[in-house]
From TrEMBL:
Record-stated family: Belongs to the CFA/CMAS family.
Domain of life according to the entry: Bacteria
Keyword Lipid metabolism: yes
Name by which UniProt lists this protein: Cyclopropane-fatty-acyl-phospholipid synthase
A GO biological process held by the record: lipid biosynthetic process
Organism from which the protein derives: Candidatus Magasanikbacteria bacterium RIFOXYC2_FULL_42_28
Keywords for the protein's UniProt record, in alphabetical order: Lipid metabolism, Methyltransferase, S-adenosyl-L-methionine, Transferase
Entries under InterPro entries matching the protein: CFA/CMAS, CMAS, SAM-dependent_MTases_sf
Entry's Gene Ontology molecular function annotations: methyltransferase activity
Entry annotated with the keyword Methyltransferase: yes
Length: 373
């Protein structure tokens, strides 16, 4: 049985030019013959968990994932866990308010010590902007300045930052543009550190769900950078309606969002369990369908390839600094976190997942909006 499963696996992997126990950087090395049965039975969950358990290895996991995604292996192996996740995504509101803090507790609160060593100096946990840059720190600064330019930020403006992370954008906007920023996060660790990093600046960090934002307050600008992936399709309308209420009539709103061609129909069980619980990557069309009735879409900018570079930079920081934090974790966490970073890099490299900046206005920018790249 194991040999037949292995042969079947090899026939599929041949489509991606991957050899079992081959010698190239993207060839998979199988240490436990039960890997085949586990993957065919459990799909991406089995693939990820068997890697965590040390059942298989690959020299360059990012290249391996890039290749299997390009042949749409996720569509070739349908498993009960995948079908169940699809059902949950379509039928249930897994991003309802009672679940809002789960992703903060399970992912963003794993330890500020880890994130400080993994991310760049400004602790941006979204893609850098690598145009004309040489390293992660430069890419982080370029990204923050890009956002400020895209929203035409002026001195002294007020900004609402929904999903503010460790307040990296808030700190930058306050320091460089004297902006007054209100940031919202569902992570206790992010809120605590964000407040320390912004001490003495006109920045307020609030630990709350976006549905509890005070919509009587109006802001010159609103940004939401890498947050909508936690909102869920059943809540998009409410999410964007809240933003519209908070934005002044002549204001601008910038959304940074993943998008993928498979959208809601293929929620990944491994990511849902270990990385981003209750997460849902939207399709660009889903965002457009909701927002076109509420806003004028002024600009769309896809820089998904930059996320590949960013994730690889995070991975190298993680590997190079692991000895400093490994006593706080274990080997299984190390393999899980490595799998997360490298597999996401492979996803973006395959171009099946994109990263967008979308700029909105409420009534259209008089004379037209000037795109910034």
């Amino acid at each position: 049985m194991s040999n037949s499963l292995k042969d079947h696996a090899q026939r599929i992997l041949d489509l991606a030019d991957i050899k079992i126990n081959g010698n190239r950087p993207w060839d998979i090395k199988v240490h436990n013959e039960n890997t085949y049965k586990r993957v065919f039975a459990q799909g991406t969950m089995g693939l990820g968990e068997s890697y965590m358990d040390g059942w298989w290895d690959v020299e360059n996991l990012d290249q391996f994932v890039d290749r299997i995604i390009r042949i749409q292996l996720n569509k070739k192996i349908l498993t009960p866990s995948l079908i169940f996740n699809v059902f949950k995504a379509k039928i249930l509101n897994r991003q309802k308010k009672s679940r809002a803090f789960e992703v903060g507790e399970k992912h963003y609160d794993v330890g500020n010590d880890l994130y400080k060593l993994m991310l760049g100096k400004r602790m941006i946990y979204t893609s850098g902007y690598w145009k004309n840059t040489q390293d992660l720190d430069e890419a982080e600064n370029a990204k923050l300045e890009l956002v400020c330019k895209k929203i035409n930020l002026e001195k002294g403006m007020t900004i609402l930052d929904i999903g503010c992370g460790w307040a990296s954008f808030a700190k930058y906007a306050a320091e460089k543009y004297d902006a007054k920023v209100t940031g919202v996060t569902v992570s206790k660790e992010q809120a605590e550190l964000g407040k320390k990093l912004c001490a003495g600046l006109p920045v307020e960090i609030i630990l709350q769900d976006y549905r509890d934002i005070d919509t009587t307050k109006k802001y010159d600008r609103v940004v939401s950078i890498g947050m909508i992936e936690h909102v869920g399709p059943r809540n998009y309308k409410k999410y964007f309606e809240i933003i519209k209420k908070c934005l002044k009539d002549d204001g601008l709103f910038l959304l940074e969002s993943f998008s993928c061609y498979w959208g809601i129909s293929q929620s990944d069980p491994f990511s849902d369990k270990y990385i981003f619980p209750n997460g849902s990557i939207p399709q660009l069309g889903q965002i457009v369908k909701v927002t076109e009735k509420l806003f004028v879409i002024e600009d769309c900018h896809n820089f998904g390839d930059d996320y590949d570079k960013t994730l690889m930079a995070w991975y190298h920081n993680f590997i190079n600094n692991w000895d400093k934090v490994k006593n706080n974790y274990n080997e299984k966490f190390f393999r899980m976190w490595s799998y997360f970073l490298l597999s996401f890099a492979g996803l973006f490299r395959s171009r099946s997942v994109q990263n967008w900046h979308i700029v909105f206005s409420k009534k259209g920018v008089p004379g037209g909006y000037t795109s910034i790249r």
